[in-house]
Structures are given as structure tokens and as C-alpha cells.
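To close the chapter, one final illustration. This time we ask the reader to focus less on the individual chains and more on the assembly as a whole: which components sit near each other, and how the overall shape emerges from the parts.
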Amino acid sequence: MLSTLIWFPVLGAIAIAALPLRQSKLVALTMSGFVLLWTLWIAHQFDFTNPLLQRQEYLPWLEPLGLNYQLGIDGLSLPLLMLNSLLTWIAIYSSQEETERPRLFYSLILLVSGAVAGAFLAQNLLLFFLFYEVELVPFYLLISIWGGEKRNYAAMKFLLYTALSGALILVAFLGLVWLRGADSFAYEALMGQSLPLWIQIVLLSLVLVGFGIKIPLVPLHTWLPDTYVAASTPVAILLGGVLAKLGAYGIFRFGLGLFPDAWATLAPGLATWATVSVLYGATVAIAQKDIKRMVAYSSIGHMGYILLGGAALTALSLVGAITQMVAHGLILAILFHLVGVVEAKVGTRELDVLNGLMNPIRGLPMVSALLVLGGMASAGIPGLVGFVSEFLVFQGSYSVFPVQTLLCVVGTGLTAVYFVILLNRTCFGKLDNAIAYFPQVEWRERVPALILALTIFFLGIQPTWLVRWSESTAIEMVAATPTVTHSPIAQVSD
Amino acid sequence: MDFASLAVQLNAGTIVPEAIVLITLMTVVVSDLIIGRQASAQWTPYIAIAGLLASVVALFYQWDVANPISFIGEFNGDALSVVFRGIIALSAATTILMSIRYVIQSGTSLAEFITILLTATLGGMFLSGSDELVAVYVSLETLSISSYLLTGYTKRDPRSNEAALKYLLIGASSSAIFLYGASLLYGLSGGETRLSTISASIASAGLAQSIGLVIALVFAIAGIAFKIAAVPFHQWTPDVYEGSPTPVVAFLSVGSKAAGFALAIRLLVTAFPLVSEQWQLVMTTLAILSMVLGNVVALAQTSMKRLLAYSSIGQAGFVMIGLILGTDAGYSSMVFYLMVYLFMNLGAFTCIILFTLRTGTDQISEYAGLYQKDPLLTLALSVCLLSLGGIPPLAGFFGKLYLFWAGWQAGAYPLVILGLVTSVISIYYYIRVVKMMVVKEPQEMSDSVKNYPPTDWTLPGMRPLQVGLVSALIATSLAGIFSNPLFTLANDSVLKTPMLQQALGRSKAPIAKQMAPTISQQLSLQITEVSTKKAVSLPKSMVHS
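The assembled structure is written out below.
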């Protein structure tokens, strides 16, 4: 029944594009709502104690190529599937009623959602690659048709970077399968370790760079600020909330899962790389004058924690990393959504112009309050979901990479700095009464933010509901990897 | 020699598909003469299409034929040639579908156009199976001369004339070079013209290392590379593609190219096994140059036909990867790619013809905002171009996947990586066209699109265009996802072809032994060693010691 998650949105997309339906938003919303419910039902049936693949589906497809239709979920993919279904629904809900060319828009969003679900579910390397590449053109169109200024430039940059990332990943996959002498790209068949270490390292590096573009990690990130800023709000939510997770998921599933030896060898380097990303993202975000750009750079920093958790490779840090993917997806979605609302109402994203939106009468009090909540969650304030995941990552990584972890903790401090700047300028201060004739904020704009805020808050005080999905899978993944030599400080801290 | 054994040796049944095309051709010519131009234009194209499809059906029955050698070794109708002949016939049929309206609108005679096109098809089909130097040259010239005529068909258009003249001059010199190479082969082998015996004769004469053989190889490759438009023998392509009538370009880029590849496989594998390292090296160079130059120069094009010209150079580079590998998987993925290329490239050309007929231009900038006026055309052209760019889940993606996977298995890592990189580059220029059509706002619409007339499918010749468009769209969308039958066909064609199995067997002895008994009527083309086997039914030409 996992196929439903892929094909229902895809068929919906074709139906919306082909049939002359008037209410395409309503149709898309219904379809994605159904997919969301279906995902929740699958999650309900999920067996927490089983670390292995569940609900597998298999259909022979292109045997000569070793490409078969193989699906399955485990603790790594299920949280991300739920995130994908939720954010698709949110993105469709939060899109403007008067979106131009609605049929194409909603059909592309549904198509992307189905393809991303397919990538999370695929248990065959080529099938994953296929789904990974399918979202390329729809996203290109989503950015370049409905984007802001510089959308053509941003969309083309996104397209070329992603296509290059796909090429690198394909080379790594082809290389792995050929060197292993396998005749199929099935994931299970390729697990385990038999390649010489240096080959593993080469292939892992290709995978890391390929997915590193998607995450993105510094210095492969230059497409991100342009793209996130140029994309319209629903598209930015999907880009930052879901698509970036595809990169992180790919690194875990195909980097860590397929090259455990090389991963253990490269882990210190990866942790350092993650730290560089975190610090770079945070410091550059501080310097931004555009709030959407600031949020975009914050995303670079936060994706770094995921890599840190993966590099440390303790059960705790891995659970933290998976949790961070979901947390970051939710937080980024609420921030992009609110920034979009602010831009729509106030007409600017400039920090120097924005002021005093918290004003209860003439400002945007509810939006500002939610923005404060989103900023707090992003900065890792306890009681919100961001804290849970960051704490898990740091707690799990400290014993392995104390220095890098401490530097990343400094990174969260810097996060607090730029969010204080953002919130202070945007929400507080004195509203200039002369210009403060903002349009009414509609419920359509409040509801997505409220849902996300509630989720962020609820998972913050009840983290088990988030953590339990991935626990056994994380333990299993750690067990499958050779032990990393602990540094002396680790023993002290234990 | 009694009549019965002569009939066996002629084995004329092998060329039934070509005979059907020939009969169709005669019917078209004669009926045009009898009933006149206006009346014949009503139905000659459909006769031609029916004839070509009948020829494809006849090819289907040639698939498992016991003895494919005919005309005392002139023609070899093995499975590989069957596939290539099928590709050429289908591309000609599709070309006719798209040319009816175009030729009518250009005010020239349709029946003559179809006649020349069918002649070219005939040449291409014979070329795919020619197993002997003279037959190769004659069919090559049939194809080439008809192609020159086709490029200059719209004779009142100066650009068409220019294209024809350029094509004729460069083509004639390349033919001459090829002929010179063939004559060298003839001399070196001591008077052999059959491809399969040439190399054995050269080897037994102790000339395997001679410089003459290398020169013959270089000249032969020059002739082939001209046909498949591989860099640096591609200079004619952009000008000829830009000036010629668009349906002709479609045929040149698919049918003629497929014939060139058929010739390349057969000639290089059977006549030049002694210098296989050299020809692989030369072809590798050509493939690299084609992929890089074709895809990079395409970035700068402003005319749609020129864009497709350079893109087809790049595509030929991809196909050549399969040729170079010299493995089963390499050849079959090459054949598969050509089949897929047939759908997507002809689909793209159908769209361009439709657009040109509506607006009279083929500038890329004139496509701006087309989605508003013609969604079907926009969809079809986008799908075909994205498929050429290798975007999943379209057919071109799977074609490239098969090719790259075969390349990787054969250890051609640099080629595959270069192929991937140039594919990424190619996405840029394909998506540029898609962007023009889909992304542009209504106010950015080009003048041509603003004045875009509503499509009237009832005009004569429009229905076939519509049929071609929709079927190419469907095939391009689905041929990849359901590629099992097509790939099995491609794979079988390689496995059933004795020529390729022999060539592969030299490097992989156990496989050759495995394959040998399955091939009925095995013909021994002993290449490196002196022949000890005797061919079953062809005593004269096959035995040598």
C-alpha cells in the first residue's frame, strides 16, 4: 500500500493537468489530505520494535538493468514521509487563491510530492535515482513560473546544480554495483562491506558531494539562497522542508548504509565539515538584510547538525539527526510561510524597513507571535521541537567529537543572535502609523502556521512521539557500522 | 550450376521488405503519372505509409529466418540488420506523416517527394544489410544522392539550394574518400569484396600490421562519420539542417543516421577486426568530440533547427559509446537508444514542423508563451526535448541509462562520466526551449505566437501530422517505462547476429562456445585463424584455407 503514496499524487497531478476542473486547489487539497491520512494510517500500523524494512513491495520491472520496483519503509524514511505529506498539504493550503495557471501549479506540486515520496520509499538504487531526478523539471518550472525577481536565474541555477548532483550520484551507484559485481541495483543486495577501503572512500565522496549539493553543505550551497528567495512561499516550503531532506536522507541511506567502513574513516572530516556549515550558515545569516534570505541561510546551518549527528554515529546522535530533519522541516516551513505573509501584507522583506509588527491594533500581532515562536524553535529554545533534536544530536555527538560539538553549540548561540535581530526589527519597536495600512490577515494564512506551530509545540513537549519511529532503526544502523575509536575526552565525559 | 542451387544462393526472400518498398515506390511514381499531381496527392502518401508498414511487417517475419545470407553474400539479413531496417522504415513512415502538409504548403509535388524519400529509405535499408564492399557503396550512394535531392527539394528557396549544394559537395567528397578506403581494402585482401572474408585474407597475407590497412580504416571511418555527423565530420550538419525542408532534416537525423550506424557496426566489426584497437581509439575520439562539441555549441543556438542539428551531433556521440564498447550490452543499448531516439527526435521535428507551418519561423525566441495558444504542441515538444535531455521517466532517460550502464560495465569510465557531464549541459539548452514555451508570461508572448492561428486539423495533411505528434508523444513518454520488450528486441538482435557473436567470441571464448550452437546456419567467418569449418549451404564463397 506504500505505492498509494506515490501514485495517488501522480495520478492526481495528471488528472488536474488534463481535466478542465475549476477548483483545482480544492482537488489538490483533497488529494494531498487523503495522502496525509494514508501516511498517518501507515505510521499507525508501523512496528516500532522492528528496525528492518516493513511493508515491502516488489514488482519486477527492467531486469536487464537491475532496476526493479522495490519499496519499503523503516525508521529512517517514515518520519520523512510524514513530513512530506504534511508539508505538501500545508504548501497547497497556503498557496494564494488567485495563483496564476492554477492547474499547472497544483499538478506540479502533487507530482513533486509523489516523486519525493517515491525517493523516500525506493529500495533500489536506480529507482531512487529515477524519483530523485523526476522532481528536477517540475521544481524548475515551479520556481521559474511562480517565483519572485531573479526567478529565471535562480531556477536555472537550481536545475544545473541538481542535475550535476544527480550525475555524481549516478556515477557512484554505477560504480558501486559494478565493482561489487552485482547484477541488480537492489539496496539490500548491496549492503554489507566487501570493497577495498579506498574505493569505498572514493564512492562515498561522490555520494557526499552529490547529496551535499542537495542538502546543501558549504561550499556547495550557493544555489540555495537564490533559489529559496526567488521561490514563492509554497514552493520554498517544499524546497526547504522536503527536498533538502532528500539530500540528508540520501547521505544516510546510501552513504552511511552502503559504505560503513569509509564512513567510519571519514567521520571526523564529516563532523568538521558539518561544523563549518553550521558556523558559516549562522554567521552569514547574521549579516543578511532580507528576512527570507536570513531564513534561507539559517537552513544551511541547521542542516549541518544532521551531518554532525550522522558522523558521530551513536544511536542517540543518529536519532537526533533524523529528528532534526523533521524538526527543521517543520520550523523552516512555518518561517517561510510567515515571512511570505509578512511580505504579502507589508510589501517588503527588508529588515531596515520592517518595524513593530507586534502592534496589536495596526500591526500583524498573530503573525508576529507565531514568527517569534518559529524563531524560538529554530534557535533551540526548550519546549519546542528544535530543542529536542538539537539536544539529542549534541548529547549523542559530544562523546565522539567534543570539539566539533561544542562549536556547533556555539552555532546555535549564533542562531539565537540572528533570530533576535530578525524578531527585534520585525516584530518589536514602534510601528510607523503612516504606512501601517496592512491588509487583513486571512484565516487561510493563519491556519497553516497554526497547525505547524501546534505540531512544533506538541512534539517539543512530547518528543517520544517523534523519536520513537527511528529508535530501533538507528540502533541497527549503528550496529551495522564498525565502531569508531573514541577520543580520550569521551571516556572522561562518560 | 543448376537453377535450384542458384535460387538457394540468391535466397531472394531475404529482401522481401525492400521489395515491398520498391513496389510501393513504383506505385507512387506510376500513379502520379497516370492520375496527375493534384489527385494523387490525396492518397499516395497513405500508400507509401502502408507500404512502409507492410515492409516492417515483412521484416518481422525475417526475424527468425534460417539463412539470412542472400545474393551470394552480397546481402546479410541477420537480426541486427532487421532491427536497423525496421528503424529506417519506421522513420521514413513518420517522415511522410509529417511531410504531407509541409510539402503541400510549399507548393511542390508530393508524389515526387515521397518517391525520393522512399528511394533514400531503400538505400538505407540495403545499407543496413550490405555485406560486401560494392553493395555497401551502391546502397550508400543511393541513400546519399536521394538525400541531396531531398535537401534541395524546395527549389525556390535559396537556403534549400545552398544546403543541397553544400551537402552534395561535402557528401560527394566523403563518398570518394570512402570508396578509396574500400579500394585499399580490396587491394590488401587480394581481391576480396565480402566484408567477412576481407580480414581473413589480409591476415593470411601477413598484412595485419600494414599501414595500408590503417589508412583504409581511417578513410572508411571518414565516410561513416560523415553519415552519422560525428565531429569533426559534422560541418555540413548545421547549414544543411537549417536550410533543408524540415521533414527531410527529420529523416536525415534519424533514418540516415541509423543507416550510418548500421554500416559502422558491420564494417568495423567484420572488416576491421585486425585493427580493432585502432578503430576503437578513433571512434572514442570522435565520440568525445561529438559529445563535447555538439552539446556545447548547441548552447549558443537561436534557431530551433540548428539547435536540433547540434543536439543530434551530441546524441550521435552518446550512441557511439555503445559502438565502441564492443560488448553485447554495448551493442544492444546502442540499438535501443536508436529506437528511442527515433521516437523522441521525430516527435520534436513533428512539433517544429507544426509550429513552422503555423507561424513560418523556427527561431527559439518566437516560441515564447506558446503554452497559451497551443498546449498540445507545447506538451509534446517539451516531452520530446526533455527526453532528449535524459529526464526521467521519459524514454531518453532509460536509453542513456542502458548506454551508461553498459559503458560502465565495459570499463569505459571516462566516456561514461563525460557522457553524464555533457548530458547535464544538454539539459540546459533543452530546458531553455521549454522555458520559452511554458514559463513566459502572456505579456512576454512573441509576435508569432500572438498571431498564432487556431489549429485547423481538417486541412489536408493535418490529420497525419496530428497522428504523428500524438503517437510520438505517447511513445516517448512510455517507451522507457515499458522498455522491457524493446530492450529484449535490441538484445536479441545482437545475440542472434552471428557476425557480432563471432567478433565478441574472439575476446570472450567461453561465451562464443555457448552461443555458437544456438545460431542456426552458423557461418564460419574465421578471422584470426585459418578456417577449418565449412559453411553449410554456401560452398563457394565461404571456404578458404
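Chain B is about 75% helix and 0% strand. The beta strands of chain B are 69-70, 75-76. With these observations in hand, you are ready for the problems at the end of the chapter.
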